[in-house]
Structures are given as C-alpha cells and as structure tokens.
Amino acid sequence: MTVTLKSKTRLTVPDGIRRRAGLKSGDTVEFKVSGGVITIVPKRPDADDEDTPEQRRIVDAQLAEGLADIKAGRVRGPFPTYKEFIASLHKEARKLSGKTKRSA
C-alpha cells in the first residue's frame, strides 16, 4: 500500500495495514530507521519492562521456591468447594500464628 506524505500532516497508517499488523487504537509503536528504511514495530508491554532487576530477582527466587515445594509434594488442594479452601487457609493461618481454634 502506498500513501503520499504531505508537509503539514502526520503519517497515517492505513486501516488495512493496522488490521494486518494487529494494531488497535491506543497501542504504542516504535519507529526504527536503518539505511533509509523505516520500520514500525508494535511496543507490547512486557513483564520484564515493569520490574527492576532487583524485583525480577526476588520474583524469580519466590517462583523457584514455589516450584521446589511442588516437586517436594508440599502442596494443598485441589479443594472441592470454596468453603474447604477457606477452612484450609484458616487452619494454616492458625499454625503460623501459634493459636488454637476458637470454640464457638
């Protein structure tokens, strides 16, 4: 597809090109220039873009710990009902706080 640039107008990406590229209103694009060729690349949000390297290390360490728990069989569930899930959470919370079950 060919478009003509004018001196006082912005570059417009035709609808058909945007559809084929999967671009939607509000998307961010990055322009790259190399040897007289302009490339427009969609800038997709990436989880790594949101975290600092230190935050990423912490998350990776926590994921590794969780995977180690799963491999060692330290898992709970699945629970047939949400009530059983909630009861399990309360039981674990009591263990962590050192309290015993309150009598009703």
Overview of the molecule:
The protein has 104 residues and is an alpha+beta fold. It folds into two domains: 7-44, Ribbon (Pemi-like Protein 1, Chain: D); 47-97, no CATH class. 44% of the residues lie in helices and 12% in strands. The chain is built from four helices and two strands. It has helices at residues 15-21, 47-50, 53-71, 82-97, and strands at 29-34, 37-42. It has a two-stranded antiparallel sheet. The chain is elongated. The N and C termini lie far apart (75 Å). The model has no long low-confidence stretch (mean pLDDT 84).
Which properties best describe this structure?
104 residues; alpha+beta; 2 domains; 4 helices; 44% helix
SSE inventory with pairings:
Blueprint: H1 15-21, E1 29-34, E2 37-42, H2 47-50, H3 53-71, H4 82-97
Antiparallel strand pairs: 1-2
How many helix segments? 4
Main structural class: alpha+beta
Low-confidence blocks of residues? none
Rounded average pLDDT: 84
**Cα-based radius of gyration, to the nearest Å:** 26 Å
Percent range of helical residues? 40-55%
In N-to-C order, the SSE pattern is HEEHHH
**What oligomeric state is this?**
single chain
- How many extended strands? 2
Residue fraction in strands: 5-15%
